[in-house]
Every structure is written in C-alpha cells, then in structure tokens.
Design brief:
The structure holds 2 protein chains of 2 kinds. By secondary structure, chain A is mainly beta. In chain A, 5% of the residues lie in helices and 48% in strands. Chain B folds into 3 domains: 173 residues, no CATH class; 125 residues, Immunoglobulin-like (Sandwich); 195 residues, Immunoglobulin-like, CATH 2.60.40. In chain B, the strands form 4 sheets. In chain B, strands 1, 4, 6, 7, 9, 11, 13, 17, 19, 20 and 22 form an 11-stranded mixed β-sheet that branches. In chain B, strands 2, 3, 5, 8 and 10 form a 5-stranded antiparallel β-sheet that branches. A 4-stranded antiparallel β-sheet of chain B has the order 14-16-21-18, with no helix packed on it. In chain B, strand 6 and strand 7 form a beta hairpin. The relative contact order of chain B is 0.12. Classes of the chains: A mainly beta, B alpha+beta.
Chain lengths: 303, 532
Amino acid sequence: MKTKIMIIALLLLVACVPFIPSKQDISIPKLYEGSQGVDVWFVQNAPPNDVFEGQLFGVAFSLENKGASDIENGVYVVGLPHELTAREGVVGRFSLKGKSVFNPFGESKIIKFSAHAGELASQVARVPAGLSVDVCYPYHTEVSAQVCINPEPTIISKPKSVCTPSAQSFSGQGAPVVVTKIDVPQILPLDNPALVQPQITLSIKNVGRGFVVDKYRFADACTPRGGKELYNVVRIGGYLSELPLDCRPQELRLSDKENTVVCTLPSGLEKARGSHLALLNVKLDYGYVDKKSKQIYVKRALS
Amino acid sequence: MADDKKKWASLAENLGNIKEGFKFVSQFNIGKIILILGIIVAAIFSALSFGVFGGLLVIVGLFIIWLMFKSPNVLGFVGSVVKGIAFAGVLVVILFFLSVYTPFPPLLLLVIEGILLILFIAKIDAKAGMVTIIILMVLAPSAHQYASLLPENSALAQSVTSIEQQLSGSLNIISPKRISEQIQRDVKRQIALASGEYYTSRVDAGAKKQLGVFMDEVKTTQKLATFFVGEPVNFFTKITARALDFNVKLNLRCGVDGIVGKVSPVSEELFGSAGASEENSKIIDVDCVFPKEQTKDWSAGSRTAKISALFNFATLGYLDVYFMDKEKKNELDRRNLLMQWKASLPSADGVSVTTSGPVRVGIGVGDLPLGVAPTDEDGPAIGISFDNAGSGEMTSLSQVMLMLPKGLLVADVNGDSGVVRKISCVELDESDQRGCDDDGMEVYLLDAPRTSGPQLQMGVKAKETWTGENIKFDLVSLRIHTKIGDYGALVGSGATAVPKKVWAKVVYDYALSKEKTFSVRVPVNAHPEVIS
C-alpha cells in the first residue's frame, strides 16, 4: 500500500514539473550583423508578371532598412519603360530607422502607385517591359573592437602581459560597407620618448550588392547626371579609447583590390601604461545606391 | 536442289565480300580520319564554288585515287569499277523506259534496280564494289544535272526530273538543290555576321502561333499521282494565313511546266482586326484544274505541277537599349562597376526580338549602355538586317519603318539622308498606328519604290510577274546613323536601368510555292482522237 502511494506521488510530481517556470535569459537581438542596408523588393503581383494592353494595374515595392544605421531623406526613383505610364509616385523621399533593440528587424515602408499599360504595335503578341527602382541614401557603418596595444613590443615584460597584439577579422556589421580586418597594431616612436604612437591598419570592403557613393552627393546618383568623382567614396573616422584617431586617407576611394586605411593616434600613448586592451571605434560614412528591376510582359488584349 | 543451295551459298559468300569491304574502309587510324575531314572541308568549299555536285566529286575522286593506290592490281581495280558502273548504267536505261511506259512509280523501280545492282556488285572485287556504290550514290541524286542536257520535253528528261523530284520529296536531305541553297544561305549569313552586317534576333518565345502564310503539300486526286492523256488533272492544297492586325491579300496561281492552269480561288483576303484577341487565321482550300481539253495535247511522261501564292506581309523587330549619361558611364567604368550594373539588368543580352514571319528582322547597336552627353551631336549607329528565313522568296520590299526612342533622330541611312523622312503617327495606316506614340517615339519611313530608280541598295529588284524567274533575296543590311535631339528624353528621370526600344518594321511581298510531280500516261484503250 505504501509503495503504491509513493508511486502515485512520484507520478504526480513528474507531471507537475512543466508547470514550474524555468529561468531563461532575455536574448538581445544581434543588430550589427548582416551586410545589407536598404532592401528593395516588389510586392508579389504588384506588378503582375503579365498585364494586358490598356490595363490599369498597381505597382508596390517595399523599402526595408535591414542594417543598423538610420536613414534620413533617402531618395527613390522609379523607372518606367515607354510601354507603361504612371500618374504619380515615381520619385520620392524616405526615412527609415535601422535595427534596434526595440525594432530588431528595422523599419520598412511600402510605396504604391498605379500604372497603365499602353497599346502594342501591330503584329506583336507581347512585349517585355522592365520596371526598376533606384534607391540612394546616406549610410554609415560602426565597428567596435578591443585591440591590444603594447607600447613596448620588443620587451618581454614580467609579469605576463595583459594581452597579445593580434590581427582581427570581421564579417557582417549591419551595413553593406564593412571593416573586414584590423591588422596587428604597430607602435611608432614620437619625439617625446615617453610616448608612443599606435598605428592601426584597417581593411574596408563593399560587401553589399549596390554601389558606394559620396555621402554628400548621394542624391546625384539618382539623377541622370552628376557622375564625376561620385562613386566609391568612403569617409573614415575613429576613436581609440575615446581619443580621436587621424585616419589616412580620410576619403577612401574603394577599388577592386585591397582597400586599406591607416589610423594613428596623434596624441600618443604613454609607454609606462604598458600593454593593455583599448576600445577601437571606427565609423565609415558613405552613400549607397541599390536598385531592383522587374520585367513584366504587356500582352495583346482579349476582346 | 543441291545446286540451288550452292548458288545461295555462293551469293552469301560474295555478299560477305562487301562486308569485308566495309571493314576495310573502317580501319582508319587517326591520321587518316584527319585527312578525310580535311578532304570534306575542301569539298565543302568546292561545293560552294561549283555546287554540291562538284564538291561531292572532289571527295569521291580523292577517295578513289587513294583506294586505287592501295589496291595491288590497279588496272584490275579500275576494270571492276567500270564493269559495275556499266551494269548500273544499263539498269538506269531500263528504269527510264519502264517509268515512261509502265504504271510503276519511278521510285519503286529505282529501289528494285538498286537491289539488283548490289547483287551484281557482290560478284566483283569488294573494294571496287565499294567505289562503284559510292560513285552511284553521288551521281544518282544529281540526276537533274543530266536532265538539263536532254531536250526539255523529251520523255527521258521528264523521267529524270521526276525521279529527282520524288527522291527530293521523300528524302529532303539529299536534294542537292536544297542543300546547296541552304549552305549558301547559311554561309552568306555567317559572313555577314562576321563583317557586322547581320544582326541576330530571336522570335518572341511568348508568341502563341507562327504568323505568316503556310502551304501544305500539294496533293492530287489520283492515286500514285498518275493521270491519263485527255483526262482532267486536278491538284489541291491548303493554305493557312495567320496575321494579327493588317489585311493579307493572297494571289494564287498554278501551272504545270509553264502551262497556266485554272486556280480556285484566284485571290483571297484575310482581314486584320485592330482589336484582335489572338492571331487571325484563315484556311483556304486551293484547287488547280487542267480540263481535258487542255490535257489531251499533253505528251506522256513525268511533269511537275506548281501552286504559288503571292502575299503581302510585315515583320517587326525590336531591341531593348539603355541610355546613360556619358560622364556617369565613364565613372562607373573607371571604378570597374559597369559590369556589375549590366548584370543587374533584366534584358541586356543585346539580341533583338522579331515577330514571326517569313522575313526576320535583326537590330544591333553598340555596347550597352549607350553613353550620351548633353553636348553630343552624333548619336549611336544602329544596324538593321532583314533576313529571308522562310522557304519562299521575297519579291519586293514595300516599306521600312523605324521607331526610335524620343530624342534620337535619324541622320542618314547607309550614308544617304534623302531616303528617309520623319512622320507622325497619324500619317500611318490604322494598323500601324497601334503602339505608335509621338510623345515617346521618333517615327521614320524609308520608302522603297516598286520600280527601278533611286532607292536604297536593298539587293531586291521589283518584279512584274512572279511566275517568271524569281530574283533571290537572302539578306539586306541597313546602317542607320543618328543624332541626339533631346538628351533629357534619352537619359530619362534618373533611374539607370530603364530600357528604351528601337523598333523596325518591314513590309514586303512574298512568294511561296509548292510542287508536285506526277505522271501522264497514254491510256491502253485510248480513243484515237485522244492519242492524237
């Protein structure tokens, strides 16, 4: 009898276990990952793949900020071929907030307008009509990393050093232009023998699918003209332990090959400080251009 | 019984020699294969110069010479080949007489005599037998060459033509005329492509049906296509005409060896519809009759009937072209971003699209995107080619229409500015006004007069009658030089990936015909009046 009661009690205890709440950590969304800025895509069936001549149809596309940076006053331009006409909505401005703790997916916006398919030429059963949306917006990339600074790298210090200077590689940073690598910090002498000047070399790359443009002229990329010296311009600024860095070149012209920037600390560091971890903050400022195209067919009308 | 068995065994043994002959021929090493390929290439070029017949003779001649030197007894080898050809010649003569004076179709007789020939060749040397067969295979399909040496109306010439026609009808690939024409057309196209005069195009994959006029094979009311002198001769076929918007008028004619027959209907019209939902199509039954009063004067032998249709048609072609500010294009190029930009375009393969029809329109421009600066005067050069892709012939070119993107103007065509005139959409026919928009296009007409006179060098002469000799038209190229009229209209609002279309339309007359070979016999119990 006692055995039976014990078994029943054990069963009841096991059954109640799920109702005892367990302790769980709150997950913080990873904001600084991915390599996208604004993602542009056409809403399904807007426009439809096939439209008939003379037909009025809707066009809708979504602008979604999938990066970590906010966008103010970006520009979008819709390109329509001769076969299609629209009364409104082909050019506009947009502002979208980036990913945040409160909005881990970033802000998005859908832009809609109506378009009209024109008449087909004789003997033509269908004709392709390519629509495109160009978006041009200012963006930035922020990278934070701890770097090991050893003011006297040739001396093997005792006791054991706090850290060992090493190179670091990075992938997604919540933006299309990223710092892919931070080389081993170099230490340069200054006039003052008590001070040294850390030198950090960064590698930068456009990993998005669009084009990098000058931040102050990003809107020109969405106009027919204004092409000179517009593309592949990135402005770099940074801090090391909250001290401003002097990065050269300040305006980097991206190329297909390796793009490197050398940042130095003009004020220098005290040698006596010894090897230590310092917080490196780098900010890349640029404009970005992306486009999305969709080909539809205008078909002969049914009568 | 035993003797019969020996005869069959002997025959089987001799047939085995031919097997060995084939084995012998197949024992080529790589070097010889390369040599043979080289001979074939040389033969193709000689075929282009002297016709397929000449090319085949080159191959055969070289092969025979090689075999002769391989044979231990050259004279004996040559003797065996001559023997085989002589026997074949005798069989051919018998074939001709049988085809004229008996009701058996010539093709059937040819097959029977071919079997007899092979059995005869089995008795002679295997290598020589191989050579004999090859020579006969070369000469036989070229029978029409010999027909031209004979009097035109003779029974022999007509039989030769009949055999060649039947072979061509049943085995299209061995028709020397067709092969030669196709090779010449393809080579001409390749040369034009290499020299930049031909612009490739593809037919719209979305087109539901082929547009144009299509003729079925000509059939006769008599079995085995055999008629008697003095009896009515009747042929018929079916024509399907398919167009979208414009009217197609067909004029029909028929004849036998130049004698005009009574065709019904004489003409037919397919009315286009501006609001057509799909291709308008019309099926026309065409009959060709020769009454007995006409056929009683015909002599026995093989003849060829021909039904022809002359019709007007139009084909359009278009090409997606991208314009970009020149400075922007240079900047993208300098930063190695141009390829990335091109890769994002939905349609930038540079191949134009043509509507289906017997003539194909090809359009080509330079490397996309086309860079345009506000201060530019000269625009890009546009190449247009019209290619006969049908089985008939284009007899005249009525009109060429160009529709360019707004802001792009025509300066001249092939260096001549006097042959082109700018028009507005309202000046066009109702069917041509479809899809025409003066706000978005620059429309031009290139007029080609029907008669001789100052006109574009199009390689086509106007014809007064199409039952006579046809002027062959294969390929016409036009080079359009343009100028920039409105830079802003060309580069657009700012979106860089918006295609603009260059359209070209050609209106032409086309002649399509089909032939049918038939036999005319003298009836066995014919009334004397009929025979005379």
